[in-house]
Amino acid sequence: MRNFFALSAAVLILLSLPLQSQPTFAENFSYIAYDPANEPYHFPKNSQNQGILGDILTAIGKITGDTFTAHYFPVARAVYLFDHGLVDIEPGINPEWRTSSPVKALYSIPFGQSTEVVVFKQGNKISIKDPKALFNQEVGIVRGYSYPKYDAYFKSGDIIKVSNVSEALLLRQLKYGRLKQIFIGLQTRLYEQKNHPEYRQFEIGDAVSNLPVMMRIQPSKAEALPRINAAIKQLLANGTINKIYQKYSYQLAPENR
User: Fold this and answer.
1) Shortest CA distance to 182 belongs to which of 205, 201, 200, 198?
2) Which residues on neighbouring strands pair with residue 138, listed in sequence order?
3) Residue 125: which of 188, 199, 207, 204 has the closest Cα?
4) Does domain 114-210 have CATH number 3.30.499.10?
5) Are 113 and 210 in contact (CB under 8 A)?
6) Could you tell me which CATH number the domain at 27-113+212-252 has?
7) CA–CA separation, 134 vs 206, rounded Å?
8) What is the C-alpha to C-alpha distance for residues 60 and 20, in angstroms, rounded to an integer?
């Protein structure tokens, strides 16, 4: 009888091993958070909010057992650090924005959509169905951001690029008339209107980009990609990612859009 109980205990231990050993595959990943922050995707370092991308990574970690630690850098510096292997993940990226990178990065499945729009100071709105509509005009963009349909014209000087370190500062430049138009994310526009009612007078123009976004991952972390993808699928299916986006959204009434 004693041998029977000993055997049973051994079987139970063996059966429990896969569950107990699973956390040993978990890792701590460093990820890029922008500084100055581009709310609502990233918030300042000491904020109570992580932002959309930090919240999504935290939700992934609850499924995979991984942890994700934010490292704060300006956009251009963050891209440089990723390209030199000094940070593991650049969240919320589309491959078209990183075509000039020397790194053959891995990408997760898409978890969201990035719609970038042109926003005008009141009274300056024009139709932009073609980049040529902006020839010889100044356009504010975040330094380090890429707009595939427009990058060649920025480089040639046909469109005059005015760079700033964050979308929040671009909106301020628009407010004070230092710029007539800027390129920013639609999600950012909706969020900033929540905290700055005076921004509701700005006029939204055409979309300049509408692309799916993914987690950009260092090739050295390839073994983590399947479990990250599986977690994203689960979070999309159960509505968690949609709730995170909605948490940081502010919707105008139709007559004020």
Assistant:
1) 205
2) 160
3) 204
4) no
5) yes
6) 3.40.190.10
7) 12
8) 19
Q: Which DSSP letter does residue 251 get?
A: P
Beta-bridge partners for 162: 140
CA–CA dist 178, 5 (Å, integer): 80
Where are the domain boundaries for CATH 3.40.190.10 in the chain?
A: 27-113+212-252, 114-210
Q: Point out which residues pair with 174 in neighbouring strands.
A: none
Q: What is the mean pLDDT of each run of 10 residues along the chain (257 residues)?
A: 46 42 72 92 91 97 97 93 97 95 97 95 93 97 92 97 93 95 92 87 94 97 97 98 87 43
The per-residue pLDDT for 250 is: 62
The DSSP letter of residue 233 is H
- DSSP designation for 252: P
Q: What is the pTM of this model?
A: 0.81
76 sits in which H/E element: helix 75-83
Q: Which two tokens stand for residue 88?
A: 């593991």
pLDDT of residue 222: 97
Q: How much is the pLDDT for 252?
A: 44
DSSP H/E element including 33? strand 28-34
